[in-house]
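Its record is set out here:
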Amino acid sequence: MWNVDNGAWNASGATVSSLSVGSHTVNFKSIPGWNTPASQTVVISYGLAKTASGTYVLAPPTVESFLINNGAGTTRAEQLRLTIRPRVSHILYGQPVFHFCGSDMETLLHGPSFTLSAANGPKTVYFRVKVAGGVSAKASASIVLAQLPVVLFQDRRRPATTINPT
């Protein structure tokens, strides 16, 4: 959609007639998720037609929010569930420091799962999302891995049993 001098919106391909001689501004309507073309100045001469055109470019994605395990501050499990808003179809992610160089995007059907590196302590997961318009800026979320120690119980009458406390 476009207009002349902030007038009524016109569909692509429409023609506006009866414009006065002189300068006029052609504006393009913004569309969510797309970069809007810049306004253009056209100079109308008596009896001559002018054409203006603009190209919308799909905007790169922005990440509204990113949660690890629904925003939990700590976890006992190395396996995590990542939640990204807005929903995207491709993602890059990694940990501890992920540079994304030469990495392939993973296609998402559901929120991805992710396995943290071993050892207790703070962990940061870095990520980028991708749509046809490009790749988002690198972002991150953090969580603390606080696994309880594994206890080995030995009963002399039976083989050793590993117990993972919960």
